[in-house]
Structures are given as C-alpha cells and as structure tokens.
Specification:
Length: 176
C-alpha cells in the first residue's frame, strides 16, 4: 500500500468514544508541522480531539520535550495544557513503569525494537480489551507495506487492523 496523508487520530478517538488515558510516544520535535493543514503534531491532535483525556507524551531527547512544550504552550489553553504530562524518558522504560489502563497507545518514536518491547510491556498490564493502538511511519524502510514486526506482535497479542493507510495502522482487540 502506498503512503497516504490521511491521518487516523480521529478514527482512533471514535473507536474509544471517551478516551481518558493516551500515550503519545515521540514528542513534537519540530516547530514546523509535518503536514500543514492536517494533523502532524500528534500531541496537539490528541489534545484537541480528546478534551477529557490525560495525554502522556514521551521522548528520550530533551530537545524534543522542550520544543513540544513550546509548541503546545503557544497553541493550547491553560486548561488543555494542564492535561498534558511531559516525560523525558525512553519509551520502553516509560511503558514498563506505567501501570494505568491505556485507552490509546500511539507509536511515533521508539523505532522498531523499542516499539516491540514497549508494546509487550504495555500488553502485560496496561492494555485492556477496549484499548486502541495506532502505529505511525509504517511505510518507512523497515515497515514496508505495513508489515513491521511490531504489527505482527500486535496481531499475536489479539489485536486486529481496522484501518491501514500505508503510513498509519490502527488496531483494536479482536474480541470487540
Ligand atoms: C517522528 S518524531 C515524533 C513526532 C511527533 N509524534 C509529532 O507528531 O510531531 C520521533 C521522536 O521519537 C523520539 N524517540 C526515538 N527513540 C525513542 C525512544 N526509545 N523513546 C522515546 N522517544 C524516542 C525521537 O527523539 C523523536 O523526537
């Protein structure tokens, strides 16, 4: 499947109905949106789409955390900003210690191995029957045709693909 600029943030939100805990792996690292006129700054997208959710945005790079704070500080109201938790931390470490139930788990940072380890860590305690997973950059070299190993891992954990744009893959638990 070719690369599509359709984003699935809204689809993920609609599958959850009322998401309360969102994990956003990979903070906003650039002052310039990836795709002007559409979503690209993931944390901003989640904050605007899901007004009741606490959003944990995680990045191993302190500069990305700083940029993200700047971008969001300039674009969100005080109330919206109070729902964002910034973590300068490796995504796998974060997911290993995070024990709350996750409504939406979004992967846009940790790379293939980190995503695989992070997914298994989350699956061991934080992912529930209603959890939604959104993978980004599935068409980068290691993710040709959406067949990244982490997608196979998610399938083996009982997730199924509900939408695949080539670039993003949205998954839910099969039993739903
Ligand atoms: C594509 S950018 C994220 C873009 C952001 N989600 C957005 O929409 O603007 C990927 C980010 O992942 C971060 N990253 C890479 N490996 C990581 C890891 N193991 N844990 C956490 N963050 C990581 C990088 O520092 C980079 O800032």
């Amino acid at each position: 499947m070719g690369r599509s600029h359709e984003y699935l943030f809204e689809d993920a939100k609609n599958l959850c109905i009322d998401p309360r805990v969102i994990i956003d792996l990979g903070c906003i690292k650039s002052n310039h949106p990836k795709a002007p006129g559409s979503y690209g700054w993931s944390t901003l997208a989640w904050a605007k789409l899901c007004p009741m959710a606490i959003i944990h945005t995680v990045d191993i790079d302190p500069r990305a955390v700083r940029v993200s704070k700047g971008v969001l500080g300039a674009r969100l109201s005080k109330g919206e900003l109070s729902r964002i938790r910034f973590h300068k931390e490796d995504a796998v470490r974060f997911l290993k210690r995070f024990s709350q139930e996750i409504d939406i788990l979004y992967f846009d940072g940790p790379g293939e191995q980190g995503s695989r380890e992070g997914l298994h860590a989350a699956a061991s305690k934080s992912l529930q029957l209603s959890s939604v997973i959104l993978f980004d950059d599935c068409d980068l070299p290691e993710g040709k045709d959406g067949r990244r190993p982490v997608i196979a891992d998610a399938l083996s954990l009982g997730f199924v693909t509900v939408k695949d744009t080539g670039r993003q893959v949205l998954m839910i638990r099969e039993s739903l």
